[in-house]
Specification:
Distance between the termini of chain A: 33 Å
Helix content of chain A: 40-55%
Radius of gyration of chain A: 33 Å
Number of strands of chain A: 33
Number of helices of chain A: 35
Mean pLDDT of chain A: 92
Catalytic activity (chains A, B): pyruvate + phosphate + ATP = phosphoenolpyruvate + AMP + diphosphate + H(+)
CATH topology of the largest domain in chain A: TIM Barrel
Oligomer: homodimer
Structural class of chain A: alpha/beta
Shape of chain A: elongated
Family (chains A, B): Belongs to the PEP-utilizing enzyme family.
Strand content of chain A: 15-25%
Keywords (chains A, B): ATP-binding, Kinase, Magnesium, Metal-binding, Nucleotide-binding, Pyruvate, Transferase
Largest sheet of chain A: 8 strands, mixed
GO molecular function (chains A, B): ATP binding; kinase activity; metal ion binding; pyruvate, phosphate dikinase activity
Cofactor (chains A, B): Mg(2+)
Number of domains of chain A: 4
Largest interface: A-B, 50 and 50 residues
Strand order of the largest sheet of chain A: 14-24-23-16-17-18-19-15
C-alpha cells in the first residue's frame, strides 16, 4: 500500500500527535467526537522531514494525496478552491508535536484571486469583507511565502489611509481596499520581478513549503533550544476550510475556558465579539463581551457552546481553552486544548475533577506539574504591579518568591538593618559562607556573579528566600555603597528600595505590591493523595531548627542533610573555629574545639526536638579549612589583631591552606583523617545531644524519640570510612554507656566521589546508609566545577550534549550510571542498606523519579521543595504502574 | 593434632617464610641442603600475632613446644643451657617475612650466668672470652629486655677503662671484665629494683617476649610504613646455638658474595678476619683480609666455603650474600641470602646465569626490578664524591640522574646562560608551562613546591632531566636572585654551583663528580628478551622530535601522547596564542590561529619523520586558556604594551578566564565545543603534515610511512566526541582528497573523566581508540587535586588507606575499577578498540602489569621509562603464565 502522508481530520485522532502535530491531532480528535470543526486535512510531520532531507522536495505521492484530500474537502464544503462564484477559502497552519506558539508561519484566506474575490463579495453580500480578505491574504502571502518585509505593505496601507484621510483600517471602503490590492501587487512585481500567483493550487503549494521552511527559521530553532524541545522531525501543515466571524452581524468569534484559569473555579469563562475575526479580539480595538452575554444574545448558540465545552472537557478530562467562530449563525469550534492556568487553578481543577468523578486520584496527580507547586509556596509579585513596573535588570531566577526591601551591600549591614525592623535586599558580587547571617536576615538576595547552583542560590533556596543570581547587568561598588546599571548608567544607592522577582529573575526599582502564599485545602488534598501513593520517603536538607520547622510544615519526614559547617560561622563560634585552624598541635586544636562543643550540642538538641523522632542525618564537617579564614588584606590584619597573632603568621597559614582546586582538596573526611579531633568533637556533640533529648526530664518526666544518623562526607575509599567509623563508635559507645540509655543511631556516608561509587561494595561492608551527594558526584563524575562550568554549560545544553544542566537535573546517563553501579554493589553486600539522595537534585521531579526507579529509600531536598518532591515521588509510582 | 608453633630448622623450608620469617625459613632451607648451620629452632610469626592480640600472652602449648625444641637442641649439641661445665649458649633473633634490617632486637650469648661463665672459661680455655661474652650478654639483655639505656652500661665500661688506663675494650683482662659484670648487675638492681635473671629459661622467655615487643617499636613501625611493608602478622623468633669466631686462632668470621655485587662479575668476593666476631668485622678496628687470602691460610676451609657457595647459588639460582664463622677449624654458615647489588650487576648476573644454564630467559627477567634500570639510563653522582660532600637540602626525588650547574632563578636566564655554553640548574618555587624553554636548557631543576607529579616533575621526567621537587628546606628570593637554607641560613646566589641527585632528592653545594650512563650489552640483552616475551606495545609520551629520538633509542614503538600545548609556548607562538585568546570573535581567533598553523605543521612533520611510520597519537589542545596568560601585575602590563591592548581589558579577560577549580574547568574538548576553530587548525596541521611526509619528494622521490592518531581530550560525553569527530573528519577528508593520497588515520579519545569511563560503550560507538589518561582519571575518580593532595596523601599512605600514592602507582581497586568498566563497555561495542594508557602510570611496573591484565594494546610513558615498561610488560606475561 502507498504510504499515507496526508490525513483528513476524520482519519486522525489525538494519539497521532507525532505525525499530525498537536493542532492536527486535536482537530481530528474533535471531528471524531462529532463536534462541528471546519473540515480540513493535515500533511504529516514526516513530509517536513523528507522535505528538509531532500533539498526541499518531496515525492509526487505527497502532491497527489494533497490534491485528493483537497477534492474531498471541496466536496464536503460544496465549494471549489479558486472558483469564481462561491470559492472555498482555506487556512494553512503549522503545528508541531510540541506547542511552539507563534514561532512558525500561518496563511489565511488562501484561494482568493482576482476572480474569486468577486465571487466572495457577491456570495457574502459584503464586498468590503471580500476585498479586505484578499488584501490580508496578499499581505500574508507576500510576507511569508515571497519573503517581502511587512513594512513594504504597511507603508502602502498607511499612504492610502493618509490620502483618504481615515485613521483606522475599518474606515476603508471596498474601493480603497481594491486600490490597495493593486498597489500591493505592483510592489511585489517591483521587488520580486513576478506577480503574486493567481493559481490557487500554486498558492497552496508555496504556502505549504513556506510552513515547512518556517520549522527552521531562527526563532523556531531558538524556541526549541530554550524550551528544550528535542527529538521532533518537523512540523505538520493543517489545511482547513475558512469560516468567518466577520461575515455579518449574525457572525462572531471568541475564546473560552471551561473553568476559570486563574482560580480554577468550575465556572464557564471567556469573551467574544460579534462580527469580528480572531485578530480583532486580540488587537483590542473593540472591547469583547463576557461569554455570559452570549446567553442573552443567542441562547441557542450559547447552549450549544456550553454543551460542547462539557463534552470536550469530559473527553480530555481536563479544563479546556477553546476558540470558536460563529458564521452566519452556525457555531464552529476552531481549537480546543488543555488550558493554561495558574498553579492555584491547577490544583483546584485537579481536586474538583476527582470530586466530579472525572478523574481518579492518580490521574489528578498527573495533571499537576510538581514544579508549579513552587508558586504556591512563595510570596508572589502582584501581576498588575509587575506589568506596569519597569525591569531595570535581569539575572538568573535562582530562588523563587518576591522580595521588596532597601538595598544593602554587606551581610553585616543586612543583619543590622533587619534588627532595626527594616526590610532589606542584600546585593553582593557573590556570597560566601561568612554572609550567612545577613542572608538569613534579608528579604531577598541579588548577586552579580554565580549560577543557579552558586552559594547564594543554594542557600537562598534552602531558606526559601527570594534570590536572583548572576545578574551581569549590574556593576557593584561595595565601597561606594551603590550599584550601577551597566546599560543605562542608573545608579542605585544603599537604602534605595528595589523589588526582586525570583520567579523570572527580574529586578525592579522601588516597591511593588506582593501577594502572600496560601496553602489552600486543595493543595493539602494533592499532598495527601501524593503521600498515599508514593513509596519514597521525603526528607529535607536543613541546618537549623527554623529550617526544620518550615520543612516539617511542608511534610518532611526527616532531615536528610544537616550541614554542620554552617553552624561554624555563627556569632562567636567562628573565632573558636579559627583558633582551632591556627593551633599548631592536637592539644591546641582540642582546646579550641572544646569551646565549640556546647554550641554544637545545642544546635543538635534543637534539631532533634524539632524533628520529634524522625531521622536526622548530620554530615560531619565538609568544607576545606581555608573557607573559615579571611581573604582580603584588611580582614587578615583585623583577624590577626583579634586573635593576637602576627599577621605574617596568619598569612603564612592562609597561604599554606591555599588550594589550586579546593573542590578536590583537603576537605570532608580527609580533614578528619588528618585532624580526627574535629569529628571527635562533632560526634560527641551529636550523641550527647541525642541522649539529652532521649532521656526523661527530671522536672516534667517527658522524654522524646530521637534518631541520629551520622554521615561521613567525601569518602572515596572504604578504609577512610572504617577508620573514622571506629573512632565514632568508640566515642558514641562510651557516652551511651555512661548515660544508661539505649540509643539507636546509624553511621553512613555520602557517595559523592566516583571512586566511592565503583567501590561501594567495600564501603557497604561497614556503612549503614548511603546518601548520594549528587552535586559533588556530578562535579567529579562529569569533571565540571560548579563554580566555573556556567561559562560553557549553557552551550553544552544548547548543542544537546547534555539535555539539561546536569547540576539542575540529574544526568541519569552518566552520573546516574555511577549511582546504578553504587546501588547494585552496595545492596549486594548489605541488602537493607538505606539509600537516599541529598544533592540539589533531591527536589527535582525527574531526578526524584530516577531515585524511585533505583529503589532509593528517600530523597532529601530544601524545605521549600518538599511538596514538589512529595508529588514527584507519587507521579513516579503512577508512571511506573502504567508501564 | 596440636597446632605447631615452633619448628626446628630441620622441619622448615624456604616456602614457609610467612610463618618462619625470612631468616628462619632460610636457615631451615640450608639445613635441609645439608649445609652446616648452627642448629636451632624458630617460634612462628603467628605466636607474635597471638602475643599482641592477647595482651602479651600466649598459650602454654607454645611454652611446651619451646622447651621441647630446646631439649632437642641440647641433645644435638651435647650441651645444656646454663650447665656449669660446658654450657649451651644461644642467640635469639627476630626475623619477619620481609627484611627489616636492624629494626628489631637481637640477643646473643644467652645462657650465661655466674656458673656457666666459669664453665665456658674452662672449656674454651679462654676466661677473657667467657667474661667478655657474659658482659656483652648482660649489656644486651639489660638494654633490650630490661629497657635500660645503653649509656648506663657504656659509662661503667668507660670508667673502668679510665681507671685501668686502657684505650680499647680488647685491652681489658678477664678480671677487669668480671668487675664490670658486677657493676653492671649493681646498676641493674639500682635502676630496676631486681637482679639480672640467672635462670637461663627465664632469660630465654624474656628475650623471646622482647623480640615480639620490638615488632611494634617506633622505628619498626616507621620502617614498615616507609618501605610499604604490609599484611604481615608479626616477627618470628629464631633460637640458635652460638658459634664463636673469636674462640681461638683457629677460629674466624667473614662475609662473602658469590659474585661481585658492584659489577656482577662471576668472581668469588668477600672478606674475613681470624679470631674475631661479626661485629669486629663491622667495627673496623682491625682490617679484614680479602677472601682470596683464606685459600692460602686454610685451603680446606676455603674449598669447603667455595663449594657451599656454589651449591647455595645454584639452589637459589641467584647471587648469594653469605655470613660464615669458623669455630675451632670447623666452618659454619650463619646466613645466606640473595645479595644486594647495583643495577649494572643485576643485569650482568641475570644474563650470565642464563648463559651458565642456571636460569631460563624468563627467570632471568624476573630477577631484575624494572625500576632498577632507571639507574642505568641516567648520569649518576660518583659515590665517593657523594659520601664526602655535605647535603645542604633534601627534596623529593622527582626525576632521576645527576646535575651540576650554576644556579639561575628564571627560565629566561637558564636559556640565556645555556646559549653561552654554561651549565645551569634552574631553581624555581614551582614551574609553569611558560618555563619550558628554560627547563629544556637546564641540566637540572630544583623546585621549592610541588610533588612527584607536579609540572616540574612530569616535564623533567619527560626530558630525562634530573629534578628535585618540593624542596621545602629552601626559601627562594627570585628578585634578590638567591635562595636561603631555612635551617642553616646559608645563602646560595645566582651563579653559585650546586649539584643535584635526582635519585634521592639531595642537594649539594659545589660541583660533584658524575658518571655517564653506559647502556651495556647485557642491558640490551635484557631488553631483547623482554621484547620476545611481552605482548604490550610500548609507546612514549613525547612532544618534540628530540624527545621522540631519545625514546626510539630506548625502544619506543610509537608516540602514545604528544601534548600539543607545549608547542604553544615556544618563541613567537605564544604571542599568536594570546592574540587568539584576546580576540573577540571567530574571525579574530581564526586570524591568530592561521599564524600558528605553519608552526604546528612543522612540529608534526618533525615527529612523523622521527617516528618513521610508527603510530603518533597527537592530543589536541588540553589546558585552560588562562594558562597562556600572565599572572603578575608586571607581566600583565608588559603584555598589554606588547599586544597594544589596554591593561584593563587584558586584566578583565584574565579575570574572565579565572577559574576556582581549573582542573574541572573550561579545558580539553570543552574549549573546542566553544571555539571549534582551535581544533580545526590543529587537525589541519596534523593532516597536512602527514600528507607532506607521506607524499613522494619531487626531488629525491622518497616517501615515508606515517600513522597519525588524533586524540580528543577530556571527553565526558559521547556527544562531545561525535560533534568534534565530525568536524575532524570533514577537514581531514577535504585535505586528503585534494592530496590524491590514501592516508590512513585514526580518531580516538582519552578516557580521563569518570563519566566517560561509565559511558564508554557510547563513546566507543565512534571512537577508534581509548587512551586512559590516568593522571586526570585519578584526580577526578578519587577526587584528589594533584597539585594539592600532597598535603594529605602521605598520611593516607602511612595509614594504609591507599597502599601507594595513587598518582605514582595506579590505584587498581578504584581507578582500576573505572578502567575495567570502560574496557568492558568499550570492547563490547567495538571488539577491536585499540586501548592504551598515557598517564604517568604507563611507566610504573605494577600499573603496566595491570594494563596487560586488562588486555590493553599498549602503554605509553616518558622516554626514560620505556626500558622499564618493556621489562615490566615482559614480567607481566611471565607472571600470568605462572598462574
Amino acid at each position: 500500500m502507498e504510504k499515507k502522508y496526508v490525513y483528513s481530520f476524520e482519519e486522525g485522532n489525538r494519539e497521532m500527535k507525532a505525525i499530525l502535530g498537536g493542532k492536527g491531532a486535536n482537530l481530528a480528535e474533535m471531528s471524531g467526537l462529532g463536534i462541528r470543526v471546519p473540515p480540513g486535512f493535515t500533511v504529516t510531520t514526516e513530509v517536513c522531514d523528507i522535505y528538509h532531507q531532500n533539498n526541499k522536495n518531496y515525492p509526487s505521492e505527497v502532491k497527489e494525496q494533497i490534491s485528493h484530500q483537497l477534492r474531498e474537502l471541496e466536496n464536503k464544503m460544496g465549494k471549489k478552491l479558486g472558483e469564481a462564484n462561491d470559492p472555498l477559502l482555506v487556512s494553512v497552519r503549522s503545528g508541531a508535536a510540541a506547542s511552539m506558539p507563534g514561532m512558525m508561519d500561518t496563511i489565511l484566506n488562501l484561494g482568493l484571486n482576482d476572480q474569486s474575490v468577486e465571487g466572495l463579495a457577491q456570495k457574502s453580500n459584503n464586498p468590503r469583507f471580500a476585498w479586505d480578505s484578499y488584501r490580508r491574504f496578499i499581505q500574508m502571502f507576500g510576507e511569508v511565502v515571497m519573503e517581502i518585509k511587512g513594512s513594504e505593505f504597511e507603508e502602502i496601507l498607511e499612504k492610502v489611509k493618509d490620502t483618504v484621510g481615515v485613521q483606522s483600517d475599518t474606515d476603508l471602503t471596498a474601493g480603497h481596499l481594491e486600490a490597495i490590492v493593486k498597489r500591493y501587487r505592483a510592489k511585489i512585481i517591483e521587488l520580486k520581478g513576478r506577480d503574486f500567483p493567481q493559481d490557487p493550487m500554486e498558492q497552496l503549494q508555496l504556502s505549504i513549503d513556506a510552513v515547512f521552511n518556517s520549522w527552521n527559521n531562527y526563532r523556531a530553532i531558538r524556541y526549541r533550544e530554550i524550551n528544550n524541545i528535542k527529538g521532533l522531525v518537523g512540523t505538520a501543515v493543517n489545511i482547513q476550510a475558512m469560516v468567518f466571524g466577520n461575515l455579518n452581524e449574525n457572525s462572531g468569534t471568541g475564546v473560552c475556558f471551561t473553568r476559570n484559569p486563574s482560580t480554577g473555579e468550575n465556572k464557564f469563562y471567556g469573551e467574544y465579539l460579534m462580527n469580528a475575526q480572531g485578530e480583532d479580539v486580540v488587537a483590542g480595538i473593540r472591547t469583547p463581551q463576557p461569554i455570559s452575554a452570549l446567553a442573552e444574545q443567542n441562547k441557542a448558540i450559547y447552549d450549544e457552546l456550553v454543551a460542547i465545552c462539557d463534552q470536550v472537557e469530559k473527553h480530555y478530562q481536563d479544563m479546556q481553552d477553546m476558540e470558536f467562530t460563529i458564521q452566519g449563525g452556525k457555531l464552529f469550534i476552531l481549537q480546543a486544548r488543555n488550558g493554561k492556568r495558574t498553579a492555584a487553578a491547577t490544583v483546584k481543577i485537579a481536586v474538583d475533577l476527582v470530586k466530579e468523578g472525572v478523574l481518579t486520584k492518580a490521574e489528578a496527580l498527573m495533571k499537576v506539574q510538581p514544579e508549579q507547586l513552587d508558586q504556591l509556596l512563595h510570596k508572589q509579585l502582584d501581576l498588575i504591579a509587575k506589568a506596569k513596573a519597569e525591569v531595570i535588570a535581569t539575572g538568573l531566577p535562582a530562588s523563587p518568591g518576591a522580595a521588596v526591601g532597601q538595598v544593602v551591600f554587606t551581610a553585616a549591614e543586612a543583619y543590622k538593618k533587619t534588627q532595626q525592623g527594616l526590610d532589606v535586599v542584600l546585593v553582593r558580587v557573590e556570597t560566601s559562607p561568612e554572609d550567612i547571617d545577613g542572608m538569613h536576615s534579608a528579604k531577598g538576595i541579588l548577586t552579580a556573579r554565580g549560577g543557579m547552583t552558586s552559594h547564594a542560590a543554594v542557600v537562598a533556596r534552602g531558606l526559601g528566600t527570594c534570590c536572583i543570581a548572576g545578574c551581569a547587568d549590574i556593576q557593584i561598588d561595595e565601597k561606594g555603597r551603590k550599584f550601577t546599571l551597566k546599560e543605562s548608567g542608573l545608579v542605585v544607592k544603599e537604602g534605595d528600595f528595589i523589588t526582586l522577582d525570583g520567579g523570572d529573575g527580574q529586578v525592579y526599582l522601588g516597591k511593588l505590591n506582593t501577594q502572600e502564599p496560601e496553602l489552600s485545602g486543595d493543595f493539602g488534598t494533592i499532598m495527601n493523595w501524593s503521600d498515599e501513593i508514593r513509596e519514597l520517603k521525603i526528607r529535607t536538607n536543613a541546618d537549623t531548627p527554623q529550617d526544620a520547622k518550615v520543612a516539617r510544615k511542608f511534610g518532611a519526614e526527616g532531615i536528610g542533610l544537616c550541614r554542620t559547617e554552617h553552624m561554624f560561622f555563627e556569632g562567636d563560634r567562628i573565632k573558636a573555629v579559627r583558633e582551632m585552624i591556627l593551633a599548631s598541635d592536637v592539644e591546641g586544636r582540642q582546646k579550641a574545639l572544646a569551646k565549640l562543643l556546647p554550641y554544637q550540642k545545642q544546635d543538635f538538641i534543637g534539631l532533634f526536638k524539632t524533628m520529634e523522632g524522625y531521622p536526622v542525618t548530620i554530615r560531619l564537617l565538609d568544607p576545606p579549612l581555608h573557607e573559615f579564614l579571611p581573604i582580603t588584606e584588611k580582614d587578615i590584619y583585623d583577624l590577626a589583631r583579634e586573635m593576637e597573632v602576627d599577621a605574617g603568621t596568619l598569612k603564612a597559614k592562609i597561604s599554606d591552606l591555599h588550594e589550586f582546586n579546593p573542590m578536590l582538596g583537603h576537605r570532608g573526611c580527609r580533614l578528619a583523617i588528618t585532624y580526627p579531633e574535629i569529628y571527635d568533637m562533632q560526634v560527641r556533640a551529636i550523641i550527647e545531644a541525642a541522649i539529652e533529648v532521649a532521656k526523661e526530664c527530671p522536672t516534667c518526666g517527658r522524654s522524646s524519640q530521637v534518631a541520629p544518623e551520622i554521615m561521613i562526607p567525601l569518602v572515596g575509599n572504604s578504609k577512610e570510612f572504617s577508620i573514622l567509623k571506629q573512632r565514632t563508635v568508640e566515642i558514641a559507645k562510651a557516652i551511651i554507656k555512661s548515660s544508661g540509655l539505649d540509643l539507636p543511631y546509624k553511621i553512613g556516608t555520602m557517595i559523592e566521589v566516583p571512586r566511592a561509587a565503583v567501590t561501594a561494595d567495600q564501603i557497604a561492608e561497614e556503612a549503614e546508609f548511603f546518601s548520594f551527594g549528587t552535586n559533588d558526584l556530578t562535579q567529579m563524575g562529569c569533571g565540571f566545577s560548579r563554580d566555573d562550568a556556567g561559562k560553557f554549560l549553557k552551550e553544552y545544553v544548547a548543542k544537546g550534549i547534555y539535555d539539561r544542566d546536569p547540576f539542575e537535573v540529574l544526568d541519569q546517563e552518566g552520573v546516574g550510571e555511577l549511582i546504578r553501579i553504587a546501588v547494585e554493589k552496595g545492596r549486594k553486600v548489605r541488602s537493607d542498606l538505606k539509600i537516599g539522595i541529598c544533592g540539589e537534585h533531591g527536589g527535582e521531579p525527574s531526578s526524584v523519579e530516577f531515585c524511585h526507579g533505583q529503589g532509593f529509600d528517600y530523597v532529601s531536598c530544601s524545605p521549600f521543595r518538599v511538596p514538589i518532591a512529595r508529588l514527584a515521588a507519587a507521579q513516579a509510582v503512577i508512571r511506573e504502574r502504567k508501564q
